[in-house]
Design a protein that fits this description.
With 391 residues, this protein is of the alpha/beta class. The chain folds into 2 domains: 134 residues, Aspartate Aminotransferase, domain 1 (Alpha-Beta Complex); 239 residues, Aspartate Aminotransferase, domain 2 (3-Layer(aba) Sandwich), CATH 3.40.640.10. It contains 12 helices and 14 strands. Helix 5 links the parallel strand 3 and strand 4. The N and C termini lie far apart (52 Å).
Length: 391
């Protein structure tokens, strides 16, 4: 009766079941998986609420690509970071997830392929299934720092490959795209008529400068490229539901792509009028929240490196983002480590297989976590791992 887009089993996994059971029993869990900034005690300026005190919110003027006022505010965001983006090349969406759906509709037919990094964002599989397209992974390798295995990526390209996704910086590895990697990808995509899709929601959260880093593909010229971001991460405002796609590349090809994107958006008209009129003020107010997030993630990272370096949990190099990956001994599976930390220490982490790590054993923790919780949780993780190895 139902389509094949849905998973065969809607049951919660063992980790979620364990969390639910502990919470029902009244157990306090130290959650090291925080991803929602509105629930982690950041100070939001009153301008966020005042931004919606606007009589224009009562008027509905459907604009498939988004109101020009809001698109100009997004353009100003890029200009403030040294990148010129014409508002005419910006299309607003309700989220980056919706942006992915639009781009998959634009670029791929049923059964076509899109290449995605491994490890990376766990929602890709669901989004691809909803559009009846196939994901093919390309590996990120680690040798003191993360890098794209370019040979493996090129080998994964077939006649049905329609796009290559880059997460910049990657989630959860926190690795940025480098200039030599971009040159290779642009050349490959131009030759094979493949689009580049760059998810840049964490791009403002670099821990240190690096001249070799590619901050955005919003100004790409030599192949069709799409850059995505939104208020959820860059302003710490996931509830405002405003994201965007910047179309870049050769002028004629970009124009054809944008025309079709606008046609898709016109069928849904999903972005609310209030958030579009408030966009400029939300972006400005969000700078205060973003600075708090930067300060906290760096503080938590430095603490984790201090307490974990030299232990049996090795923090892998990270350049930016909100997450830290720990390599732990393979004496247990990732699921076992995660379940044992829950049952014995009441600490919640994420196993690497959530992010499609190719091998065991990795755990992922969130640097967004409130500092007191993070310090206590990281300490419990360290002590538990050490004790488990001794046993």
């Amino acid at each position: 009766m139902f389509s094949s887009r849905f998973p065969r089993d809607f049951q919660h996994n063992r980790i979620t079941q364990s969390v639910d059971a502990l919470r029902r029993a009244g157990t306090t869990i130290l959650d090291l998986t925080a991803s929602n900034p509105t629930l982690t005690r950041f100070r939001y300026p009153p301008e966020v609420v005042r931004a919606f005190n606007d009589e224009r919110l009562l008027i509905y003027e459907p604009a498939p690509a988004g109101l020009m006022e809001a698109r100009s505010a997004v353009s100003d965001y890029y200009v403030s970071r040294g990148v010129h983006v014409d508002p005419a090349n910006i299309l607003l969406t309700a989220s980056t997830s919706e942006a992915y759906a639009y781009l998959f509709k634009l670029l791929a037919d049923s059964g076509d392929h899109v290449l995605v990094p491994r490890p990376s964002y766990p929602l890709f599989e669901c989004l691809a299934a909803m559009e009846s397209i196939e994901l093919r992974p390309y590996p990120l390798t680690y040798d003191g720092r993360w890098a794209i295995d370019l040979d493996a990526l090129a080998s994964a390209v077939t006649a049905r490959t329609r796009a290559i996704i880059i997460v910049n910086p990657n989630n959860p590895t926190g690795s940025f795209l480098k200039r030599a990697e971009l040159e290779y990808l642009v050349r490959l995509c131009a030759e094979r008529e493949i689009a580049l899709i760059s998810d840049e929601v964490f791009c403002d959260y670099a821990f240190a400068p690096d001249p070799d880093r590619v901050p955005t593909l919003a100004a790409a010229k030599d192949c069709l490229a799409f850059s995505m971001s939104g208020l959820s991460k860059i302003a710490g405002l996931p509830q405002m539901k405003l994201g965007w796609v910047v179309a870049a590349g050769p002028v004629a090809l970009r124009a054809q792509a944008f025309e079709r994107l606008e046609w898709i958006a016109d069928a849904y008209l999903s972005v609310g009028t209030p958030v579009q009129h408030a966009a400029a003020r939300l972006l400005t107010a969000g700078e205060l929240v973003q600075q708090q997030i930067r300060d906290r993630t760096l503080q938590n990272l430095e603490f984790a490196q201090q307490i974990l370096t030299g232990s049996c949990a090795t923090p892998l190099a990270v350049e930016g983002g909100w997450y830290l990956t720990l390599q732990v001994p393979r004496v247990r599976t990732e699921e076992e480590w995660t379940l044992n930390l829950l049952s014995d220490c009441h600490v919640l982490v994420q196993p690497g297989f959530f992010y499609d790590f190719e091998s065991e054993a990795f755990l992922v923790i969130s640097l967004l976590t409130e500092p007191a919780v993070f310090r206590e949780g990281a300490g419990r993780v360290t002590r538990f791992l050490e004790a488990a190895i001794v046993q």
